[in-house]
Amino acid sequence: MIKGVLHAHGRIPSPAVRLPLLPAAEAAVHTAMRRLSTLRTL
Predict the structure, then answer these.
(1) Is the pTM of this model over 0.85?
(2) DSSP letter string over 1-42?
(3) Domain range annotation of the chain
(4) What angle do CA 15, 29, 19 make, to 5 degrees?
């Protein structure tokens, strides 16, 4: 999920991961980004 968030923020070119890891679900990436934005406003 970390790579998915980094990719969504434009910090890395691809959210791809190598096995045995699996790609993060799009919903998980969106949830993580929403929670990160909450932390930044505290």
Answers:
(1) no
(2) -HHHHHHHTTSSS-----TTS-PPPHHHHHHHHHHHHHHHT-
(3) 2-40
(4) 40
